[in-house]
Amino acid sequence: MQKKGLFITFEGTDGCGKTTQLNMAAEFLKSKGYEVVITREPGALETGKKIRQILLHSEEKLSDYCEMFLFLADRAQHVEALIKPAVEQGKIVLCDRHKDSHIAYQGYGREKNAQLIKELNQIAVNGIEPDLTLLYCVSPEVAMKRLSGAPDRIEAEGTKFQERVLEGYKKIAKENPERIKVINADNSVETVYNDTKNTIIELIEKKFEV
Ligand SMILES: Nc1ncnc2c1ncn2[C@@H]1O[C@H](COP(=O)(O)OP(=O)(O)OP(=O)(O)O)[C@@H](O)[C@H]1O
Ligand SMILES: [Mg+2]
């Protein structure tokens, strides 16, 4: 029996298949009768959309700290206004990117202070920790091919950047072996989905059916 909801985050570098897998997982969970909430960071809520607007379209060059605090502000609001209440109501929240993206991209990709970003994120999330994080690891070359319709997205920052982000994600996974499940995302959509589904089923059995 479902007692309380779940918070599951989907992480990985650009084009690894997060959104594809999130949508498939949502359909599966709905078919099993769970109430599912799909959300994403940054910019899921009204405040977040305004923040995203600043992040993407500011005419002024944003300082590193300004950018860092904007991401944190978006996350803090998202957690309080959407994630926490939904989990408390027994829903399963599937979130496309969350704090690990921030740590991996800004902390490791851009080689800023990863430790500080981790600590500030713990303040922003105010006690909410994902029950499970699915980390899709794809080699940058495979991701590049998948995003061939939009090559700029990876080329804008460069393959080296994506490699640093991927290494960062792997470090975060090593530090959080209980929470983060690493999935080989070089495989076909079906194989990756099988891993996604099995991992989620395992979590549900552990959480709800004891
Ligand atoms: N396992 C896979 N094998 C081959 N193609 C895939 C696989 N998973 C996703 N794709 C395709 O790769 C592209 C990127 O997938 P998707 O949008 O799910 O990635 P994403 O991680 O959400 O990307 P972004 O970081 O840009 O949001 C899509 O065209 C999708 O259909
Ligand atoms: Mg996506």
Fraction in beta strands: 5-15%
- Which value, in Å, is the CA radius of gyration? 17 Å
The percent of residues in helical segments reads 55-70%
- Strand order of the main beta sheet, please? 2-3-1-4-5
**pLDDT < 50 runs, ≥5 residues:** none
Q: CATH homologous superfamily - what is it?
A: P-loop containing nucleotide triphosphate hydrolases
Give the CATH level 1 class.
Alpha Beta
* Number of helices, counting only DSSP H or I runs of 4 residues or more: 9
Bound molecules: adenosine-5'-triphosphate, magnesium ion
Please provide a brief summary of the model.
The chain is α/β, with parallel strands linked by helices. The chain has helices at 18-31, 46-57, 64-88, 99-109, 114-125, 140-146, 152-155, 159-175, 189-208, and strands at residues 6-12, 36-40, 92-96, 132-137, 180-184.
Model description:
This protein has 210 residues and is an alpha/beta fold. The protein has one domain: Rossmann fold, CATH 3.40.50.300. 58% of the residues lie in helices and 13% in strands. The protein has nine helices and five strands; from the N terminus they run βαβααβααβαααβα. A five-stranded parallel beta sheet has the order 2-3-1-4-5, sandwiched between helices. α2 (46-57) packs antiparallel against α3 and α3 packs parallel to α5. The longest helix has 25 residues, at 64-88. It is globular, with a radius of gyration of 17 Å. It binds adenosine-5'-triphosphate and magnesium ion.
